[in-house]
Design brief:
The complex is a heterodimer of chains A (109) and B (414). Chain A has one domain: Folate-binding superfamily (Folate-binding fold), CATH 3.30.2270.10. Chain A is 17% helix and 28% strand. Chain A has 109 residues and is of the alpha+beta class. In chain A, strands 3-4-5-6 form a four-stranded antiparallel sheet. In chain A, strands 1-2 form a two-stranded antiparallel sheet. Chain B has eleven helices and 18 strands. In chain B, the strands form three sheets. In chain B, strands 1, 2, 8, 9, 10, 11, 17 and 18 form an eight-stranded mixed sheet that branches. Chain B is globular, with a radius of gyration of 21 Å. Classes of the chains: A alpha+beta (109), B alpha/beta (414). At the A-B interface, helix 1 of A face strand 12 and strand 15 of B.
């Protein structure tokens, strides 16, 4: 069972307490963007077998949104971090590098 | 290939069963094939089979990383139905259901197709309207389904509780010629027929790269060396994204674990397939007597082939309420498969940005029932460049806004 630490209330929340929110750090495209940009924004999700960044909500807890870095192949959790950021903090990236040297995700590595 | 028949069984009985052959060959790969199919699951093998049978393309290799039929083909709950809402879906699923009817005879391999009837329970007013709408749509599409009353439901499924306190059964969408089939046998039967046509099924051979020249596919790199081809079909379900990445394009798919479980075997008690979508559980009884139960998908991307435990609890809770007599049953085993989900919950059968490379994936939670129809349409697409069965399921439909929205009509909440 997946257990994530909520960075806001500090609780180690298990899966039934959480709601998955899909891919993290999406750049939103709306009016004025090209068809390709809008298409990619709506449908082209990262689908890695390995390191992935996601949004989660501590739904049956403090109710706050946060981010998680996770491995989709092993369910290993590398860390959770605040929702108030557009990319993962260096500490999270270092934690991933320690476990998965050479990892990439979009243009991060 | 030796023909299977009652006579063959009698003949082998007289000589201690020493004359049976292997059902398919396991050859080393050749240097070049006209068509390479990646993925020896039901869809891949069916595509290869219809390429050979309908279009005479028999210089074909089917490459499989693991073992034949070991992915979602061997992990589903074996349900076959075609009671979909949208026309393109109804067409391809009904083609598949229709082909299942005579598949055992055609392949000379018993796939144990059992058209026992599929019942989708309506347990809310909203579902009543939804299923009546589907029944009317099916009538126009030429798919035989009907709306039935709770009394008829009880008559068909005596073990059901139609007066449940929370969600009473208010009626059902009934497809009499839906049912189940032996999922492994579908893969094995197609594999045997493909092998008999001279096609090579290469197991335990992982594709590690897709080679192309001037925007056209020329072959694949594998753990058994490079193999050339004119056309490439990527039919790998959960790992479509990885293969697409090798081929240099992206797919609007996300991989998620879906799980199923079976109970200990009991005496025959239910001879139809029942799907209760509001409470999210579906159940049928296998020929061995096990109750085969389908669970829910996880809410997040993963490749673990396990699934989250709490989904089992939710599914079993829903089914115990609907079928009180199963409350004392022990569950025998549980497993998961990786399903590839698209934005509109309909599959992708399409050409790709790489010339000569075709994709068949995104079947999500409902691929098994479509195997023969998917193979039929995909073979036509790969051989001729166009198929009326697959034309609505193109990759560019997301950009053009031509969705085939089955996320409501597909039955279970995804």
């Amino acid at each position: 069972m997946l257990i994530l630490n909520c960075p806001y209330c500090g609780v180690d929340a298990e899966e039934t307490e959480l709601a998955a929110g899909g891919e993290a750090h999406l750049k939103r495209f709306g009016p004025g963007s090209s068809d390709d940009e809008f298409h990619d924004y709506l449908f082209m999700r990262e689908n890695p077998k390995g390191v992935h960044f996601e949004r989660w909500r501590h739904a049956n807890g403090c109710g706050k949104w946060f981010h998680a870095a996770r491995c989709t192949q092993t369910l290993e959790v590398f860390g959770t971090y605040s929702a108030q950021t557009s990319e993962p903090p260096q500490a999270i990236k270092d934690a991933i590098s320690a476990r998965r040297p050479g990892w990439t995700w979009r243009d991060l590595s | 290939m030796r023909h299977y028949s009652a006579f063959a069984v009698a003949r082998e009985a007289l000589r201690y069963h020493t004359g049976w052959e292997r059902a398919w060959r396991s050859p080393e790969p050749k240097k070049r094939y006209d068509v390479i199919i990646v993925g020896a699951g039901g869809h891949g093998l069916a595509t290869a089979y219809y390429l050979g049978k309908n279009y005479g393309i028999q210089n074909v290799a089917v490459i499989e990383k693991g073992w034949l039929g070991g992915g979602n083909t061997g992990r589903n709950t074996t349900i076959i139905r075609s009671n979909y809402l949208q026309d393109p879906s109804a067409a391809i699923y009904e083609k598949a259901r229709d082909l299942y009817e005579n598949l055992s005879q055609e392949l000379n391999y018993n796939v144990m197709f059992s058209p026992r009837g599929v019942m989708m329970l309506a347990q809310t007013q909203h579902e009543i309207r939804g299923y009546q709408r589907t029944a009317h749509a099916n009538a126009l599409q030429g798919v035989k389904t009907e709306w039935i009353t709770p009394e008829r439901v009880k008559k068909l499924v005596p073990i059901i509780n139609i007066d449940g306190p929370r969600y009473p059964v208010l009626g059902a969408l009934w497809q009499e010629r839906g049912g189940t089939a032996r999922h492994d046998a579908v893969a094995w039967g197609y594999a045997r027929a493909c092998s008999a046509m001279g096609m090579d099924i290469i197991q335990q051979c992982e594709v590690t790269g897709v080679r192309s020249e001037n925007g056209r596919v020329v072959g694949v790199d594998t753990t058994k060396g490079a193999i050339d081809c004119d056309k490439l079909g990527i039919i790998v379900a959960g790992h479509s994204g990885q293969l697409a990445q090798m081929a240099g394009f992206r797919l609007p798919l996300e991989a998620i674990a879906l799980q199923a479980l079976v109970s200990e075997p009991i005496k025959p008690c239910m001879d139809v397939v029942v799907m209760a979508n509001t409470v999210h559980g579906y159940m049928s009884q296998s020929d061995k007597g096990e109750m085969v139960i389908g669970g829910g998908t996880d809410g997040f991307n993963n490749y673990t082939q396990r699934g989250s435990f709490h989904h089992i609890e939710e599914t079993v809770r829903a089914l115990v309420e609907t079928f009180p007599m199963i409350s004392r049953l022990k569950m025998l085993r549980q497993w998961g498969g990786i399903v590839d989900m698209t934005g509109d919950r309909s599959p992708i059968l399409s050409k790709t940005p790489l010339q000569g490379c075709f994709i068949n994936g995104g079947w999500g939670t409902g691929g098994f029932k479509a195997i023969p129809g998917s193979g039929w349409g995909m073979a036509q697409l790969m051989a001729t460049g166009h198929s009326s069965l697959t034309e609505a399921f193109t990759l560019d439909r997301f950009k053009e806004g031509r969705f085939i929205d089955e996320s409501v009509a597909a039955g279970v909440a995804h």
